[in-house]
Amino acid sequence: MGMEYDVVIIGASAGGITTAISAKKFYPDKSVLVIKKEEVGMIPCGIPYIFGTLGSVEDDVLPVEKFLKPLGVEILTDEVTEIDPRAKLVRTKSGKEIRWEKLVIATGSKPVKPEFPGSELDGVYTVPKDYHYLKELRERIEDAERVVIVGGGFIALEVGDEIRKLGKEVTLVVRSRLLRSSFDREFSEMVEERLRERGINVTYGQVERLLGREKVEKVKLVDGTELPADLVIFSIGYRPNVELAVRAGLRVTRYGIWTDEYMRTSHPEIFAVGDCVEHRDFFTGKPYPLMLASTATFEARIAGANLFKLQIVRENRRTIGVYSTHIAGLTLAAAGLTEEAAKKEGFEVIVGYGRGPDRHPAKFPDTSMVTVKLVFSRDRGAILGAQIAGGKSVGEMINILALAIQKRLTASELYTLQIATHPLLTASPVGYQILQAAEDALAKLRT
User: Global pTM?
Assistant: First the structure.
């Protein structure tokens, strides 16, 4: 059965949906088909919250049709089994052959599976973007008393915090320090302190094996520690879904599908976006391991705009990791390089700190203390990275700093940034933390 479209997009998560929207905005006359594997998709960043705050898996369902139908995008629920670049076809599980002029691969990622002895026992889970799997996991958590989570990244901490809200005993097993790839030590310590206050146990060590008869009963660490567990969740990273691309003969590295700055793969008519793509760091050009929905949508907008003609103003000049999380009542956000990563790359850095309340006066009931850390290169004074901890205002403050990094602003330019402030909404104009941190760095640059 043959079908034909100008644009075919494989995948309907953040990257696939945004590519479709962008394609229709820039090329309204082109026909667009999105092929999604699952009947029900999940909002990826909302998954940890199905265990506590949201109350159900249904509350985190991604309304694909709502986004795409009004734009005239067609949706097919089926699984693509083959990409044929020569014939410009995709073939699906149900036997369809679909011809395309431009193809976009947005196949996402899947959790890294644990390969420890005992990981095949009942009660051992990962955190995939899979509705039915998550539904089952949520039911199992209801019945469990002691939950062990292996991992120290965003998903591990967010899931742990949410399960703790259900009154369960939660233990995090971490190899080095919390959120290591995104934050420097002082921020890791801040979040650990908050988690411990919430009653979450943080244990440092490495898993050796899982023990139990048919069902998991204990997690044994390399140092001999045994942690009792009714349920074990591994959150040890995600791998790009690249099998289709590999079989189609596209260039793929161990980090994902290779793309140029317009998100074109090694085949000029095939684009790729999101978790399945190899991202490259903004400063170093090295492969960048973090997988984020915000990065996927940024890449999707570039792909969508450049599908049929290259629009020079819209190209991907590499990835600035910018993200935020809210754990144990603390909002943490980061952009660019950490101090540790910058030094490892050979940058000579200057660090500036700013700290103060995010309302003025600080007597307002929703006030929280905000700490800002900015990392600058000593030679030019250009900003390399930023980290913030505090209340919910931090979630938007980091976006100011992501723009500063993209525009390579200096400490001097940030120090003279013109800002809006209001007692109920922001820090005082006298003590706005970003400007304070820039001022602190400037004073050090002069020495």
Answer: 0.91
Q: Residue type for 210, please? A: L
End-to-end Cα spacing for the chain? 73
Active site residues: 45
Task: Note whether 278 and 88 are within 8 A (CB).
Answer: no
Going by C-alpha positions, the residue among 437, 327, 339 that lies closest to residue 392 is: 327
**Cis-peptide, bond into residue 63, ω within 30° of zero:** no
Q: What is the pLDDT of residues 216-268, one digit of tens each?
A: 999 999 999 999 999 999 999 999 999 999 999 999 999 999 999 899 999 99
- Let me know: does 87 contact 248? Beta carbons within 8 Å: no
Listed as own residue / partner, the contacts of 124-130 with beta carbons closer than 8 Å and 24 or more positions apart are 124/210, 124/216, 124/232, 124/234, 125/231, 125/232, 125/233, 125/234, 126/233, 126/234, 126/235, 127/47, 127/48, 127/155, 127/159, 127/233, 127/235, 129/13, 129/41, 129/42, 129/44, 129/47, 130/38, 130/42
